[in-house]
Amino acid sequence: MKRKYINLKPSQLLIFIFAICIIIGTILLRLPIATTASITWLDALFTATSAMTVTGLIVVDTPVAFTIFGEIVIALLIQLGGLGIMSFAVLIYIMLGKRIGIKERLIIQQALNQTSIGGIIKLVRNLFIFSLTIEMIAMFFLAIKWVPDLGWGKGLYFSFFHAISAFNNAGFSLWSDSLMGYVGDPITNIVISGLFIIGGIGFTVLSDIWYKKKFQKLSLHSKLMIAGTFIINIVAMFIIFILEYNNLNSLGGLPTLSDKLWASYFQATSPRTAGFNTLDIGSLEEPTLFFMLLLMFIGAGSASTGGGIKLTTFIVIILAVFTFLQGKKEITIAERSISQIYILRSLAIATMGVFFIFSAIFLLSITEQAPFMTILFEVISAFGTVGLSIGLTGSLSMIGKIIIILIMFIGKLGPLTLAFSLASSKEEKIKYPHEGVLTG
Amino acid sequence: MKRKYINLKPSQLLIFIFAICIIIGTILLRLPIATTASITWLDALFTATSAMTVTGLIVVDTPVAFTIFGEIVIALLIQLGGLGIMSFAVLIYIMLGKRIGIKERLIIQQALNQTSIGGIIKLVRNLFIFSLTIEMIAMFFLAIKWVPDLGWGKGLYFSFFHAISAFNNAGFSLWSDSLMGYVGDPITNIVISGLFIIGGIGFTVLSDIWYKKKFQKLSLHSKLMIAGTFIINIVAMFIIFILEYNNLNSLGGLPTLSDKLWASYFQATSPRTAGFNTLDIGSLEEPTLFFMLLLMFIGAGSASTGGGIKLTTFIVIILAVFTFLQGKKEITIAERSISQIYILRSLAIATMGVFFIFSAIFLLSITEQAPFMTILFEVISAFGTVGLSIGLTGSLSMIGKIIIILIMFIGKLGPLTLAFSLASSKEEKIKYPHEGVLTG
Ligand SMILES: [K+]
Ligand SMILES: [K+]
Questions:
Q1: What is the number of structural domains in chain B?
Q2: Is A214 within the bounds of a domain?
Q3: Which of A212, A389, B214, B338 falls 20 to 30 Å from A30 in CA-CA distance?
Q4: How far is the CA of A387 from the centre of ligand 1 (A)?
Q5: Distance between CA atoms of residues B13 and B376, nearest Å
Q6: Residue B54 within any structural domain of the chain
Q7: Cα(B351) to centroid(ligand 2), Å
Q8: Which of A313, A361, A428 faces B440 most closely, judged by CB atoms?
Q9: Could you give the C-alpha distances from B354 to B309, B394, B433, in angstroms and in order?
Q10: Chain B contacts of A344, Cβ < 8 Å?
Q11: Searching chain B, which residue's CA lies closest to the CA of residue A434?
Q12: Does some domain include residue B5?
């Protein structure tokens, strides 16, 4: 028995740990000391899952429903969930690097420079030190803005909570309207977005930058992540700016061009997968919401605090389509080629995502009375562990809440689990003759 | 110059021929003799494209707007489009079989038993004879029902038009309410659905059945298509029956259980990609409409008159996901294994589809004032060349019409073109070192 327990796959262990933490979190949030007025077990479970999976969808308004004790439980769950998934992902990639070919091990070594057990422990320690340091620095800068606004106690406490929530891409806020009160404030915009971009780009990329210093020397993964993040954020900012410019309930209602630009920047970067908002998401135009569905589905980086199918997964898919259209068989970029197994993995992860999203939408379209876009937005937000909503979360039926809980859980752990099982898969023992089928 | 023309790729030639036919069709439909009252060039182009791509979306009501001359032009375009794409697809697969490895040639040989030039000519002749024979038999049976209802002249003419429209999966009807008047009629249901299922399963499968007789001896492709068509139709019928049972505007409003079952059967089979309706599609429940989006996206068989990404493409994707989840590397089914290149092709075709659908929805959400589901349904219907609509087609803006025209064209020719360029792709000349990226 003991041996069996030890033989749990890393991905199974991860799922087990997450489930345990969510259950403990649920019990803690259900304590009378955690809430201002009693909440249901289901709402406690929803909140604990949302915090542990760093999603940020809320069935009860965080600052209204929870006491400071409850909020600190939420902050701890966020920290556990964010750092947990990040370090676990790094560990899994290292373990895969040991088991599989030299080629793949090189990626990890390049990115992390660590393969011994001692190295792994050091690596995880570094990850924790790095994360906490970043959060503390950010807390300091946020305090500069928020202590004058809110006083010492509340100002520091808000800075502490939002630094954790932002670095871990959780999107939980102690303001009922998220960060709408700071829509045009440079400090809030820069610090919060800086936190979730650093937390979301992936620890392997950060390590890579730390050790290599120069862009040319970085691994292909790091190059794609950095260039990809830059390009997608600029493009998204531009699109949102154009689409919302005349919307009086969003950009059109802001007094200065500076406010409009900050708001566009923030709502362009936040959907992948921070989930904070400085504009009222429910008031955005339909094309903007539709575009955000894509951003939420794509998400942040591998081995990061963010969710979604991951930016590199999306980039590989896009490159693959262009490559195939040119009649080529192999993706080449930045003087490297990406072999078919990575394309296959990326497509499998995206397909799985679409499958779960599709199923959840179908079920919710039966259980909930809401416009189709509202359901679509909610499900993809849960899958990408984003936390933005155009209003469904608050009015979800009981079954609806359970579905969204499951989708948050699957959205957080699914892509990593799948990436793991794809990477560690073995050849068949029974060999059948090959035969093709016509497609397209 | 002459040599260059001859060197057009088969897929380029196909696109060229389709474009020419659509232009000729547009001019013919714009003639005063074709319409009861003058229609715009754009509406003529829309109708010609819809007919040639066997889609069936209509901006003007066919029996109201067109004279018999106009209707016959539409029927001819449908016949050209349906038979054209089917024979071209067969030819392309044969040509690929000649160029590429023995393994792939075997698939084609197995399915068609034809590889010489003489064999090809015979094959296409067989395809035409077979199709016209089926249409004539179906016309006879339809006439049994419709001549008593409509008189000799109109009855035979309607049988002729609908036999062509159904076999070619076009969905055009001479009744303004499609086949709603025959919702519970066994002859209409069996003949029309028989036509579009035979036309939609793919000519390679029909040849295979003709030559092999026994299911066990069929190619893997034929087995998957036959079993897949059977399963998906049963499942879809069951789901639609359950979802619509209490809807007074659809099944709930029908007097007998027999009517309800026929209607469920018909609306389960028609969305992949016939496009006729015996129920009012606009009155269906949202979960049903959402489920139909999936059916429309999947579509019919390769080398058939139907559209969509194709049923085998979908089956390969589903099998791939399950295979990967089990930690296996290769799909095994029916004592055969499907190699990764087929998975890759299937995923590329589906991804391309999603890409075009996504782009069209985004643009239409800007240009059209309509609920999101209405836009979604219209775009996927156009992409799958289905022709069902919940009301957007009639009220499309000018830009909206152009977008739908493009999507019909891409939906019909895209998957085949992509399948061709994927299958004929060559290795790179410049070799770069391989490097992986993290995904998921
Ligand atoms: K989030
Ligand atoms: K059709």
A1: 1
A2: yes
A3: A389
A4: 5
A5: 31
A6: yes
A7: 22
A8: A313
A9: 10, 24, 31
A10: 340, 343-344, 347
A11: B337
A12: no
